[in-house]
Amino acid sequence: xxxxxxxxxxxxxxxxxxxxxxxxxxxxxxxxxxxxxxxxxxxxxxxxxxxxxxxxxxxxxxxxxxxxxxxxxxxxxxxxxxxxxxxxxxxxxxxxxxxxxxxxxxxxxxxxxxxxxxxxxxxxxxxxxxxxxxxxxxxxxxxxxxxxxxxxxxxxxxxxxxxxxxxxxxxxxxxxxxxxxxxxxxxxxxxxxxxxxxxxxxxxxxxxxxxxxxxxxxxxxxxxxxxxxxxxxxxxxxxxxxxxxxxxxxxxxxxxxxxxxxxxxxxxxxxxxxxxxxxxxxxxxxxxxxxxxxxxxxxxxxxxxxxxxxxxxxxxxxxxxxxxxxxxxxxxxxxxxxxxxxxxxxxxxxxxxxxxxxxxxxxxxxxxxxxxxxxxxx
Length: 378
Hints:
The protein is mainly beta. It has three domains: 5-89, no CATH class; 100-230, C2 domain (Immunoglobulin-like, Sandwich), CATH 2.60.40.150; 236-373, C2 domain (Immunoglobulin-like). 13% of the residues lie in helices and 46% in strands. The protein has helices at residues 58-75, 91-94, 119-128, 196-202, 311-314, 341-345; strands at residues 5-13, 16-20, 32-37, 42-49, 81-84, 100-110, 134-140, 146-147, 158-167, 173-180, 187-195, 205-212, 215-231, 250-260, 271-277, 281-284, 300-309, 323-329, 332-339, 351-359, 362-373. Strands 6, 9, 12, 13, 14, 17, 20 and 21 form an eight-stranded antiparallel β-sheet that branches. Strand 15 (271-277) and strand 16 form a beta hairpin. The longest helix is centred in the N-terminal third of the chain and has 18 residues, at 58-75. The chain is globular, with a radius of gyration of 24 Å. It starts with a strand and ends in a 5-residue tail after the last strand. The model is unreliable at 123-129 (pLDDT under 50).
């Protein structure tokens, strides 16, 4: 008696970037192909059977959100799918580093009517005469979402809050959504978008129109933006200018190419590499297992991890913590090495790549790249 349901068709709409690099002097002349959406794509689902009623329901939105989160974590910048076309391709020469940061300040919103309230807020407003309880969601590409604080009971909220986002491409979209905090589900008040490139061309302060359900409203959102390119100069960690909640003073990128000389019976090996920096940053590559075509004693990982450098870690008066690179077998650490922060800073272009000895003759080929913040672009 369970009704049938399913999805008849799935469509993705977006701008796809295909990078063919590095160039080589042997066939196929290209080391690797990298594919990614520059911004989160638009996903359309056409349900069938009993689920067809979900085409315009909460279920549709929930399903799409789950699918898009998976797609964005794999295929939307800064994430890319990497396909090696040359078995000898060097991952360190293939990876494209981020460009800089866009510092977004959400100043205030105005001119939106009380009709923008959610259903529950509208009901209670008849008794309390309340206005929306607004906050703003901000995203840049597939970077982690950031939200301002909620400003209760006002149609003219003032936030003056700032957050930094890493920029991978100048055509990444800065998406700002003003929301009304509501009982059950928050309601959208209005949406404003601009690209990083448009923000750079327009200058700092901008007054953006709010669009609701595809129609431009009278609502306005005031924002300010600053762009800071990353710099490989050792004194570019200008802590004083970037010491506040939500701000970063640089970026550490750790590339893990592979491990070599892992000891033990093939059938018992489940290698992975863990990267740690400070008390909050912990990353792990995918776990490899013995299979056809896999050299389990010398596995390739070709994964990258980005670590925001904040003032509390490098400007708190004490020495910055070392980078920990550890080789794992399943859940057990079998060896590791601590790479001092100062050693990376002192390397040429603040980039240190090596086969790091993690013990018992086993090495992990990794690259640690530090970038500070350059002068803001006008």
